């Protein structure tokens, strides 16, 4: 069946929900060979995925995934990007997650090792001794206890191993890059999502709205980052109270300084670790700290902890400057990782 559907896609025809649901079953159960799956995914990307196709893929991925449901006070959110901006910036959303948790939010962070960047969120958690293969029940408990925890995509989406080779064959972006951030195993209804292209900003919001999401903020900076940035203005699409609003945020309007991309770029995994720690213990350069605060602010709005960017940025900066963000990291690493690793980075 997959060959006929790949052929249909190559002529620019959309698949029905049933067709996509059935072919995803075949792909995720590993019954198809890698070349056929690669051809299918390549043709789908070249045609351009319809919202119905993406929704059918998303539903199937969720069906095959492991899930948790932490019981926390307040909303549980995720903060992540689709990746693919290739700008080699430090792990902004991972740092922002600890700021949000330090300010009283709950973050069920879902992520992977880096694909296009220098270091992914999983690389950071792993470096500090967190067990990426932690059982779902353990991760559930950690989120309830610390207000933050990490779900390693490869652990929680075991069926995705059946697509890994096909994705390598394709070599470029596929629909799965887009869907990864939308398949949070904690089934969060509130999320800050960085996207790699303007085309997808409102579409992602509408797809998640069809899945009964509550508050979703998709963001992209004018200079091409899949995060909120202090290096340029930012386009935002917000779903709240079932209403979708598009807006532009200029970091200078919320009291932040215009930064340069070079201030937040890194070259090695060591740089990534050092930048992450330095932001949280308030010793990094101003641009790194402020860009983290701006993304944390987005998360605090999505969490319903703050109502406006002005208020949220102030709270995020205060959480970093007061030491609360670093205390959150220290406590997390002490209980779920290797505190000596953290102390070593602090000394370096």
Number of helices: 16
Structural class: alpha/beta
Number of separate domains: 2
Termini separation comes to 56 Å
Helical content, roughly?
Answer: 40-55%
Order of helices and strands: HHHHEHEHHEHHHEHEEEHHHHH
In the CATH hierarchy, the architecture of the largest domain is: 3-Layer(aba) Sandwich
Question: Strand fraction band?
Answer: 5-15%
Major sheet: arrangement of strands: 3-2-1-4-5-6-7
CATH topology description of the largest domain: Pyrimidine Nucleoside Phosphorylase, Chain A, domain 2
> Could you state the CATH homologous superfamily of the largest domain?
Nucleoside phosphorylase/phosphoribosyltransferase catalytic domain
Number of E-type strands: 7
- Mean of all residue-level pLDDT scores: 95
Low-pLDDT sequence parts: none
- Overall 3D form: globular
Could you describe the largest sheet, including whether it forms a barrel? 7 strands, mixed
Can you identify the CATH class of the largest domain?
Alpha Beta
Radius of gyration: 19 Å
Binding site for anthranilate 1: 81, 112
Pfam families: Glycos_trans_3N, Glycos_transf_3
Family: Belongs to the anthranilate phosphoribosyltransferase family.
Keywords: Amino-acid biosynthesis, Aromatic amino acid biosynthesis, Glycosyltransferase, Magnesium, Metal-binding, Transferase, Tryptophan biosynthesis
């Amino acid at each position: 069946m997959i060959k006929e559907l790949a052929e249909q896609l190559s002529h620019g025809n959309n698949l029905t929900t049933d067709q996509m649901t059935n072919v995803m079953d075949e792909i995720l159960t590993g019954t198809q060979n890698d070349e056929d799956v690669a051809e299918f995914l390549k043709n789908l990307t070249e045609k351009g995925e319809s919202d119905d196709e993406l929704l059918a893929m998303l539903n199937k991925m969720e069906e095959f995934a492991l899930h948790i449901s932490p019981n926390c006070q307040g909303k549980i959110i995720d903060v992540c990007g689709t990746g693919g901006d290739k700008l080699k910036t430090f792990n902004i959303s991972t740092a922002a997650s600890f700021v949000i948790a330090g300010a009283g939010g709950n973050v069920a962070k879902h992520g992977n090792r880096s694909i296009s960047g220098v270091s992914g969120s999983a690389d950071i958690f792993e470096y500090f001794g967190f067990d990426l293969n932690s059982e779902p029940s353990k991760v559930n408990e950690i989120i309830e206890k610390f207000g933050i925890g990490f779900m390693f995509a490869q652990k929680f989406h075991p069926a995705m191993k059946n697509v890994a080779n096909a994705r390598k064959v394709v070599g470029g972006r596929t629909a799965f890059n887009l869907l990864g951030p939308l398949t949070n195993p904690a089934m969060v209804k509130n999320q800050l999502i960085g996207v790699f292209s303007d085309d997808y900003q409102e579409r992602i919001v509408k797809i998640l709205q069809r899945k009964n999401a509550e508050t979703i903020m998709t963001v992209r900076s004018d200079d091409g980052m899949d995060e909120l940035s202090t290096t340029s203005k930012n386009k935002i699409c917000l779903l709240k109270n079932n209403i979708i609003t598009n807006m532009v945020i200029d970091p200078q309007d919320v009291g932040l300084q215009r930064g340069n991309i070079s201030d937040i770029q890194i070259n090695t995994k060591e740089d990534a670790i050092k930048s992450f720690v330095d932001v949280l213990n308030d010793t990094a350069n101003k641009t790194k700290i402020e860009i983290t605060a701006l993304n944390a602010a987005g998360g605090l709005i999505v969490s319903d902890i703050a109502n406006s960017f002005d208020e949220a940025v102030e709270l995020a900066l205060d959480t970093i400057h007061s030491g609360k963000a670093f205390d959150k990291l220290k406590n997390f690493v002490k209980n779920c990782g290797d505190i000596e690793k953290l102390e070593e980075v602090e000394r370096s």
